[in-house]
Design brief:
The complex is a heterodimer. Chain A is mostly beta strands. Chain A is 8% helix and 27% strand. Chain B has 24 helices and 17 strands. The chains are: A mainly beta, B alpha+beta. Chains A and B meet through β4 and β5 of A and α8 and α9 of B.
Chain lengths: 83, 616
Amino acid sequence: MRIIVKLYASLAEYLPPEAQSNSFPFEIDAAATPHTVLDLCRVPRARAHLLLINGTYVPPAERDTLALAEGDVLAAWPPVAGG
Amino acid sequence: MAWTGQILRVNLTAGTCVAEPLNREWAALYLGQRGLATKYLAAEIDPKIDALSPANKLIMATGPLTGTMASTGGRYSVITKSPLTGAIACSNSGGFIGNEIKMAGWDMIIFEGKSPKPVYLYLENEKAELHDASHLWGKSAWDTDHHLHNEYQDPLLRIACVGRSAEQGCLYAGVINDLHRAAGRSGVGTVMASKNLKAVAVRGTKGVGNVRDMKAFMQATNAAKAVLSGNPVTGEGLPKLGTQVLMNVINEVGAMPTRNMREVQFEGSNRISAEAMLVPRESDGKPNLVTNAACFGCTIACGRISTIDPKHYTIVNRPQYMGANGGLEYEAAWALGSDTGVDDLDALTFANFICNEDGFDPISFGSTVAAAMELYEIGAITLATTGGIEMKFGSAEALTKAAELVAKGEGFGRDLGLGSKRLCEKYGHPDLSMTVKGQEFPAYDPRGIQGMGLAYATSNRGACHLRGYTVSSEILGVPVKTDPLTTDGKPELVKAFQDATAAVDSSGLCVFTTFAWTLEDIAPQVDAACVGGWTPEKMLEMGERIWNLERKFNIDAGLTAADDTLPKRLLKDAAKTGPAKGKVNELHKMLPHYYEIRGWTADGVPTPDTLNRLSV
């Protein structure tokens, strides 16, 4: 199935060349979890401090088990802040 | 004792500058800057006065760590009664003016009365003189800075001044210092201009040598700097991407106020974000961001220095805007961008330049333009009202034209200079104003971040993110992650952030350090510099004291619990997209408990027991 992956801030270094505006479509199998996606995208798990699925935060404890669905948007950042 | 022990009282009516000793008893209770200046203001003015009358006072205050080697120790604040809100105003700025005031030997400057003609204060160590500013009146902040530097031929002269917007009565004008930094919110610049005070030019060469225990101070500040440099936010994220890194975060979580807060996500956010500021342009192959920049003594360096695309319509044949200037911070980018529906990065950068050049708050300005765009859309204002500007959501031309009009106080710019609340009231739709206590919202929709609704509603200076930034916990996970969509635990969270922030704002340090530091890192620095035994617990108690003092000032000024609310749109109209879809802000679930844990009555008034406990 296909999801959308978005990598922001310093995680942009892991974007593939075809990515646009920090975003790219990504094919995964049905058993994929957020950690699976990070691994396939070569993003070190520890650097994905803020990980959202469709805008909702996924705690580290759920990143090995949460099931993804067709069309989901996975977005990740290293630790960031501002204001 | 990092206090200099001296304050300067400038009576603008009489034209006198008099030194007087710092009130040490108050310094022991309120430390400095925000807290201590609020104590002076509350003691010296009737909170009910007209903010723009000579009876109001304006205080420029440093903290005990301002001008020291502590990282970020360059902060100062401008404290007065706000003409925008009628409440206490306290606006904080970095740059280099705070440390210069301190190194000239002053903890704070109190301006009172009103000069019969435009003047500026020249301060060189103990020499304090009022000079004629007739030749500066009518000039922008940038031109004023340029003229004073030319006049004194001293590149190290530090200048804080007001631009034309303040002179023209824009109610959200700020005090610009060092060209690109600002005590930006709540109209503190409007008050300064109302006193015919154009600028403060400072040269200080004394240093800050009166630290209580220099060895302990060196150890504490060095240890704290190591914490900042080792933290991924303050050591890497903020220097590289600035606060603008939040643009895509807040949009993804569905808390991006869009088109006068009708929506919570902006389709153009990726085009105006930190990431977009790094993309090379087609015209010259250069990105918007030139470099980052640091204020005095700062080891974070989150500031943005930017250029505009040389082919962009805003700067054609206008060389004064072609160079590198202060670039977009997240709050400005949001207000000028998603709230107006404009996704043209160069137009936003230009509008931000104008806000700096003529000294007005880009948050309040952008939000007021957004309100005007909604008024235009529903027909409440027309081309006749706007002087021919098509105030359509998404129009970069309308935004940049509006900025230039507010800067000079011309045409429709005079209406826009009233701020969103008065503009919407004038044209018969007060509910379209996205304000609390008359001040415009910052960049977080409280339908998607519940705690921020309470933080906005109870902020002592009106809607503001810098009085209790629960975004840090609710979205960013600093220091711990909480659920942004629940109200559970939020009164306690808001109170903790409000009290801690008030303490930091009184020290001379920047609140951005708190992405890495806690009071456990800050208190040892303050304690090594100052007498008084400053523990984290004492700092937090002082923050609570300041919060209650500000609250008391506001109540004495006539504000009530009825002012602790949010616009109907945020309480009644549910978010349409994103994780908060279907949710409104549930302020009613948080506010009563907040009053209770504050030690206030059900009407939001601090009880005598609370005031006594805190020695307010």
